[in-house]
Design goal:
This protein is α/β, with parallel strands linked by helices. The protein has a single domain, classed as 3-Layer(aba) Sandwich (Rossmann fold), CATH 3.40.50. About 35% of the residues lie in helices and about 20% in strands. The protein has a seven-stranded mixed β-sheet, with helices on one face. Helix 2 packs antiparallel against helix 6 and helix 4 packs across helix 5. The chain binds S-adenosylmethionine (SAM). S-adenosylmethionine binds next to strand 2. Keywords: Cytoplasm, Methyltransferase, rRNA processing, S-adenosyl-L-methionine, Transferase.
């Protein structure tokens, strides 16, 4: 938990409390429905919570904006971002029902009012969003194919609407067709070794009516 305050020193008491509660909520729900590996539960804040918040270091979200988290699993990156930005609307989608069940329980446990969770394949979700976030779901080409009709026309942020994807390793091959993609290394923000190979990939997408 200190790890979160170290990099996000402006949290309110209520946010700190919500971040604190994550450990117990995930431990409890993981016993009933296994969504996070044992090793990852032990390092929840380093590997899941802070990693999710890496997106906020690259792109802070403005009040009133709408964010889609594709293949959220147990709620990453969507839940930590929803705690950080209570005035932003988050839609968390996963094709596996039991994962969405965990998300709903965590949302209720934290009393988050800005999260909607849907059990569906993202291809079947309609709606328009400022940014689409994700981690560990699909190769960029497949992902773009799934989401490129879900971008809002108007950009509220200075940066154009698009995808913010948490990726690891060498992305040269995967991103070679995306000349307008930008890779932001998270090691520039977080000094822990875990982040040495982690990045946020930003890909602007055009509105499709
Ligand atoms: C490896 S998990 C990652 C979960 C979470 N994003 C994380 O990083 O902890 C991939 C998730 O993507 C979901 N998924 C895969 N394809 C999907 C699709 N087309 N629509 C919605 N969810 C999908 C799977 O059900 C699974 O929960």
């Amino acid at each position: 938990m200190e790890l979160i305050s170290k990099y996000f020193p402006q949290l309110t008491d209520s946010q700190k409390n919500q971040f604190q509660m994550l450990q117990e909520l995930y431990e409890d729900w993981n016993l009933k429905i296994n969504v996070v590996s044992r090793k990852d539960i032990d390092e929840l804040y380093l590997r899941h919570v802070l990693h999710s918040l890496g997106i906020a270091k690259i792109q802070p979200f403005l009040p009133g904006s709408k964010i889609l988290d594709v293949g959220t699993g147990g709620g990453f990156p969507g839940i930590p971002l929803a705690i950080l930005y209570p005035e932003v609307q988050f839609h968390l989608v996963d094709s596996i029902g039991k994962k969405i069940k965990v998300v709903e329980e965590v949302v209720e446990g934290l009393q988050l009012k800005n999260v909607k969770a849907t059990n569906a394949r993202v291809e079947d979700v309609s709606g328009k969003y400022d940014f689409i976030v994700s981690r560990a779901v699909a190769q960029m080409e497949t992902f773009v194919h799934w989401v490129n009709d879900k971008i809002a026309k108007k950009s509220l942020h200075e940066r154009k609407n698009g995808i913010l994807y948490l990726k690891g390793g060498d992305l040269t091959e995967e991103l070679k067709v995306y000349k307008n993609a930008t890779v932001f290394p998270l090691y520039d923000f977080f000094e822990e070794d875990f982040y040495e190979t982690k990045s946020v990939v930003y890909l602007p997408l055009k509105y499709k009516g």
